[in-house]
Specification:
By secondary structure, the chain is α/β, with parallel strands linked by helices. The protein has eleven helices and 15 strands. 35% of the residues lie in helices and 24% in strands. Helix 6 crosses helix 11 and helix 7 runs parallel beside helix 8.
Length: 322
């Protein structure tokens, strides 16, 4: 979701401190609007703000509307476009139009609902915030917008009256095996929006020199993954070729809801892996979740290209499913 990452948390903090808070959310865009649907700006009652709904074009006007809405205790829907003199005055990009929902916390956006949203985000639980504009109805929902969750896309439902803001946990990547492929994959994954963690108990591999400024866990993979957690927004990639390291991680992953499991190795290596998992009691349907050999078949040669193929397969699984 292209939004100020901690908007709900900041709004709740300002509300709890007594400063008052308003959430402003982009609910529709046309043309060259600089921010996507779902982008958020948080405004305190004293005019302080964090986030963005237009990259700086209309923020000043939105802050004024938000403080007025907070004082009045009312919802507002704002629209700025090139045909609007106010938009010219604040410099909205040529050809762009945005529609913004303004919600004061308390009078419009119930405090309990906001607390529940913040709690769901803290627990890494995917949740959608649903607003029915005609009735001012608001609720949190799960599991009823699978396509929106899969595409990480906020927007209106077909009737145009119900706005759905998707709050997916940040994407994570757990890499078991601090090998050459990992050195290419980790920075690529970070660019693609993942928060990576590298797991390898072999100190010579998982060193700061090989992975500067990255999170490295020098623990056995099963122990590390229990601490990291494997949820619906986490991908796991196994790169060690060593059953002593890979298999315990697989045992955890196959019982988890993580969206992607990839394991390096040839077809022969994977066949041996499958046999071990069957002997360990895993069903064929569970084992079939493993992408092995790992990565899309793009004829990759060398660690960087293999890393590209892995990231591409992760993306395909995330966006298109099985």
């Amino acid at each position: 979701m292209d939004m100020f990452e901690n908007a709900p948390e900041q709004a709740l903090a300002w509300h709890d401190s007594g400063r008052g808070a308003v959430l402003a959310t982009v609910i529709e865009t046309w043309g060259s609007a600089p921010r996507r649907v779902g982008a958020q700006l948080v405004i305190a009652g004293d005019g302080d703000m964090q986030g963005s709904v237009s990259g700086g074009c209309v923020e000043g006007a939105v802050v004024m509307e938000a403080t007025d809405a907070l004082a009045a205790g009312e919802q507002r829907i704002l629209e700025y476009g090139v045909s609007d003199g106010d938009a010219f005055a604040v410099g909205l990009a040529c050809g762009g139009t945005i529609r913004i929902l303004v919600e004061p916390v308390g009078d419009v956006l119930p405090e309990k609902l906001l607390r529940d949203l913040v709690a769901a985000r803290a627990a890494r639980t995917p949740v959608a915030y649903e607003v029915t504009l005609s009735s001012n109805g608001r609720r949190l929902v799960r599991d009823i917008y699978p396509d929106r969750f899969a595409m990480d896309r906020s927007g209106f439902e077909a009737e145009g009256d119900v706005f759905v803001a998707v709050h997916n946990p940040p994407l994570r990547l757990a890499v078991v095996g601090a090998v050459h492929i990992a050195q290419a994959l980790v920075p690529m994954a970070r660019i693609a929006g993942y928060d990576p963690v590298i797991i390898d108990p072999r100190g010579a591999f998982g060193s700061e020199a090989r992975f500067p400024a990255e999170r490295i866990l020098a623990e056995w993979p099963d122990e590390a993954l229990q601490d990291v957690g494997l949820d619906t927004r986490t991908a796991l990639v196994l790169l060690t070729h060593d059953p002593k390291l890979d298999d315990p991680a697989l045992h955890l992953a196959l019982k988890s809801p993580c969206f992607y499991i990839g394991a390096l190795g040839s077809k022969r290596t994977h066949a041996a892996r499958v046999a071990r998992l069957k002997d360990a009691g895993f069903a064929e349907a569970e084992i079939a979740r493993i992408h092995g050999p790992v990565g899309l078949d793009i004829g990759a040669s060398g660690p960087p290209e293999i890393a590209v193929s892995i990231l591409a397969e992760m993306t395909q699984r995330l966006r298109r499913g099985a």
